[in-house]
Design brief:
The structure is a single chain. The chain contains six helices and 15 strands. 23% of the residues lie in helices and 24% in strands. The protein has 253 residues and is an alpha/beta fold. The protein has a single domain, classed as L-arginine/glycine Amidinotransferase, Chain A (5-stranded Propeller). Strand 4, helix 2 and strand 5 form a beta-alpha-beta unit. The longest helix has 17 residues. Bound molecules: citrulline.
């Protein structure tokens, strides 16, 4: 069960965020509205939402998931792989220190975006990507072991972050597409295969029995419902334009 979430209001400068999507510039006002709706969806799942102010110095800072990993036993401030995102950790650290959890840090030369980390009970899968390097994943492994957790790495091929392509929906159900469909690391899961033309919906989020799914991906929604979940559709089109998915917009704990 999750009880809380941290989100960060998008800044106007999000228009200059990092992107490979080729979908054009986001509409800032629409992004603000979508962010409010996203917060509403988190609340509907029973979460108390901590909303951080926007910060024009960091165009991608609304994607709070990358700057920190919160586990039930500790919080880990990351060292984001993109140069323009490294400073995002300063603001998030302040909020994390107010939580009742020990705080750890990933340090250079280790880099890690927590969008690359997927929690499955007491095990953490870490994607090795352009953002998360082997040193970062090794530091993470040492930290997690201290708290009684395990971790393993997965080399990514075609996705920005691990959770761009795979989402754990609890009850052994794994939503996945592309390179993860027959990945040996996931052979023991019940795979819910996302249709290639709905690949963006592979980044969906389980929260207390509900699954938040991006709006408009009908086949994926039908499949998730058939697996026994309630779904909540959230329109995040403006964040998609910056390669961001549903999970990136919050830290849930
Ligand atoms: C970036 O490239 O860093 C941002 N434009 C998008 C980050 C998305 N975060 C995530 O998938 N966890």
């Amino acid at each position: 069960m999750f009880t809380k979430a941290i989100v960060k209001t998008p800044c106007k400068n999000m228009l200059n965020g990092i992107t490979t999507a080729g979908l054009g510039k986001p509409d800032y006002n629409l992004a603000l509205k979508q962010h409010k709706d996203y917060i509403h969806a988190l609340k509907k799942c029973g979460l108390k939402v901590i909303v951080l102010d926007s910060d024009e110095n960091f165009p991608d800072s609304t994607f709070v998931e990358d700057a920190c990993l919160i586990t039930p036993r500790c919080a880990i401030i990351t060292n984001p792989g993109a140069e323009s995102r490294k400073g995002e950790t300063i603001r998030i650290s302040k909020t994390i220190k107010e939580l009742d959890l020990p705080v750890e840090n990933i340090q250079s030369p280790g880099t890690l975006d927590a969008g690359d980390i997927m929690m499955v009970k007491n095990h953490y899968f870490a994607g090795l990507s352009d953002r998360t390097n082997y040193e970062g994943a090794s530091q993470l492994n040492r930290i997690l072991e201290k708290y009684g957790y395990t971790s393993s790495t997965i080399a990514l091929k075609n996705v920005l972050h691990l959770k761009t392509g795979v989402s754990y929906l609890e009850n052994n159900n794994l939503l996945a597409f592309g390179e993860f469909l027959d990945h040996p690391s996931f052979s023991s899961f019940n795979i819910l295969a996302v249709d290639p033309d709905e690949f963006y919906a592979a980044n969906s989020v389980w929260i207390n029995g509900n699954v938040l799914v991006p709006m408009g991906f009908f086949k994926t929604i039908k499949m998730i419902k058939a697996a026994g979940y309630q779904t909540i559709e959230v329109d995040v089109s403006e964040f998609r334009k910056l390669d961001g998915g549903l999970s990136c917009l919050s830290l849930r704990f």
